[in-house]
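An instance noted here:
***
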Amino acid sequence: MADPISVAVAAAIAGKVAESLTDAGKRLLAALRQRVQDKLKDDPNGLLALLSATQDPENPDRQVELAEAVEAAEAADPAFRTDVRELWKQVRAESTGPGTVRNTIRGDVRDGSTVVQAGHITGDINLR
C-alpha cells in the first residue's frame, strides 16, 4: 500500500485540489504534475495509472494506482522522490482551503492605522 504522501500527491494530481490553491500553488501543482508525468512517461503501467487517475479523478482506486506508481518511481530514483516531496510541501503551503488563514497587507500601516488579524473568533469583538 502506498504511503500517505504518495496518496495525497496522486489525489492532488488527479483531482480538483487546484481550486483550493493560490495562484502560486496552482503553478507549483502544475510543476508537480509535470514532474510526475515526465518520470512516468517511459513506464507504460505508470503512465496508464496517471491517465486513468486524471480521467476519473473521483475514483479512489485510480488514485491508489497512481500513488503506487509514484511510490515505485520514488523507490527507483531518490532524486525524483526528493523533488516530489519538496514540490508537495510547497503546494501544501499554498493551500487556501478550510482551516487556512492567509492574511496579506499591502502598503504602509502607520500614522495611527491599525491592522487586526484573527483566526477563529467565538463571541463578541469590540474594536475602539
